[in-house]
Each structure stands twice: as structure tokens, then as C-alpha cells.
Amino acid sequence: NNSEIEKLYCAGQIVKETLLMLEEFIVPGVTTLDLDKMAEEFIRSKNSEPGFKGLYGFPFTLCTSIDEEVVHGMPSSRKLQEGEIIGIDVGSIYEGYYGDHAKTFSVGTVSNSKKELLQVTKDSLYLGIKEAKVGNTIGDIGFAIQQFAEKKGFGVVKDLVGHGIGKKLHEEPQVPNFGLKGSGPKIEAGLCLAIEPMINIGTDEVYTKDDDWTICTKDNKPSAHFEHSIAIMENEIKILSE
Ligand code: MG
User: Fold this and answer.
1) How far is the CA of 176 from the centre of ligand 1 (A)?
2) 116 CA distance to ligand 1 centroid (A)?
3) What's CA 202's distance to the chain center, in Å?
4) Separation of 125 CA from ligand 1 center, angstroms?
5) What is the average pLDDT value for the chain, to the nearest integer?
6) Distance (Å) from CA 113 to ligand 1 centroid
7) What pLDDT does residue 1 have?
8) Beta-strand (E) ranges in the chain?
9) From the CA of 163, how far away is ligand 1's center (Å)?
10) How far apart are the first and last CA of the chain?
């Protein structure tokens, strides 16, 4: 209902502002733990709580995933270096409702292939969002993302998916970044989703590192991740984290 969507919007605005705040600090020499601390303080200053910290036992506010790391990277004392790309995923809880948002940033100047990867991943997210309208199905979202990214020669991660969002971070339905037109559950007004393509320069195959969290590409080539939380209304798609 509308009051729930209003709270999801507030939670979405907090994660949006968190990434905007962090952007200027994403430079060579900063550690991912520094970024994590700044994000936690910022979120707590907004009458909100970090959405990931403690969830499933994850100990941090941010997921920070560098280069070949796809998602769920753990903040650490590792310093960012010129030419790396870093995916930052952040969650918030505002009055019991979750926000979930991710962007991949360049550290200084990056290669042209990384630049293209970032652009294609971001564009694929917006193409997916456009399909998330009443009358379509969840498969239409994944179809749009997959078609676009694969045509550019990139790998679309299949092992991890987007999700419904609300009083829980991960709700039904699952939202794959691949699929067939017209497949999956029908999209109805009031549905709230987190859409989050994970796109690789090379293979779509991934594995989990020894820390049991960090997902990496099998060929060690770079990966990017962009995510928005959205609310599907009768006549429009509202991006909650924009
Ligand atoms: Mg998510």
C-alpha cells in the first residue's frame, strides 16, 4: 500500500544519498573499511540502520567488490588503486522497510573495456526497469537485460538474482537477469523489486572465495553491478533509490 511504498521510498533515498556521499572518497589510497565506516555513520545519522549488517551474519554496512569480484565483497584494509573498479552495494532499514542500491565506480582512470562494462551494466539495469510494468512478467525484465548485455559480448551472471523488497531485504519473487519473454510471475501494481544486473567482461561463471562471501568471476576478468529498488504503480514505475 501507499504508506508502505512511502517508507520504502525513504529507505531508498537514504541508500541513494549514501552512495552520492561516498563518491568523492572513492580515490586511490582509501580503504574499503574507511568507506564502510563513513557509510554506517551516514545511514545512522538519517534515523535509519544499515540493512546488511548482521543479516545472514554479514558483518558490514557495505558490500565492496573490486574488479573480478562480482558482489558480496567484504570491506577490509585493502587500499583502492588507480584503474580498479569497485561495486558498492548498500542497504538501509527505515521504519522497518528496506532500501537496496548498488553502483560500480571507477577508481581514477580506468581502461576503455572497464568503461564500456560500466556503461553496459548501467544501461541494462534501466532497460530491465522499463520492462517492470503492470501486465508484463518477471521474465520480461531478465530478457531485456540479457539480450542487451550479451549482444555487447558480455557475460550475464545467472547464479545470483534480484528480488522483491519490503519488510524483508529479500522477498519473493526472484528477479533473474536472464529469461524468456512472458515467463515467470505476472507483474502487478504494488509490487516492489530490487533489480540488479551483474555483468562480466568474460565468462558468466562465478565461484565463492574462501571467506564464504565474496563472489568472483571464474576467469578473473572484471565484473560490474548496478541496482535500484523500484515500486510498480498502476501507471508508472517509481525508482525508489534515485
Ligand atoms: Mg539486492
Assistant:
1) 11
2) 23
3) 19
4) 13
5) 98
6) 25
7) 81
8) 49-50, 62-66, 69-71, 85-94, 97-106, 155-156, 162-164, 171-175, 192-195, 198-200, 206-208, 215-217, 223-225, 228-232, 237-239
9) 6
10) 20
CA of 72 to the centre of ligand 1 (A): 10
- Residue 52 to residue 32: CA distance in whole angstroms: 16
How far, in Å, is the centroid of ligand 1 from the Cα of 44? 20
Q: If you measure from the C-alpha of residue 100 to the centroid of ligand 1, how many angstroms do you get, rounded to a whole number?
A: 6
Q: What is the Cβ-side half-sphere exposure of residue 43, based on CA atoms within 13 angstroms?
A: 31
CA of 226 from ligand 1 middle (Å) equals 10
Dihedral sign, Cα of residue 9, residue 122, residue 206, residue 39? negative
Closest by CA to 231, choosing from 196, 197, 198, 188, is 188
What count of other Cβ atoms lies within 10 Å of the Cβ of residue 55? Answer: 14
Sites in the chain below the pLDDT cut of 70: none
Block residue for cell numbers 541513494: 16
CB 35 within 8 A of CB 62: yes
The span from the CA of 21 to the CA of 110, in Å, is 21
